[in-house]
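Chapter review: from sequence to fold.
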Amino acid sequence: MDLQAVVAGFRGAAPLPFLKMRFANTRTGGRSTNPGRGLTEPRRLVEEFGRLEGGPGSFAEFENRQGRVWRVEWHGAWYIAELDAHGSAPRETGLDELVEFAMERLRD
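The token string follows.
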């Protein structure tokens, strides 16, 4: 999957989707500087997903316009779970599937 093409689908005349995120990366030392999730572009979210690889305990959370929040963590693979969803256990996913899932949730 061409990740740049997926993100590019949000560019152009159409407005960007509502997206808030926060992250912390144990490998790069990068992290959000605000206390909660901040507004950003889908491109930034996709970049952070890729940077999680190899950083045990690293995470990225993202929120869509409906206030639904998902948390992605790296534990030897990408794991995703919806926060505040009853019985939502983290599930393993690949990077392409993760990006596709996130972009669909931003369109919800």
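Two observations follow directly from the output. The two ends are 21 Å apart (CA to CA). The mean pLDDT is 89.
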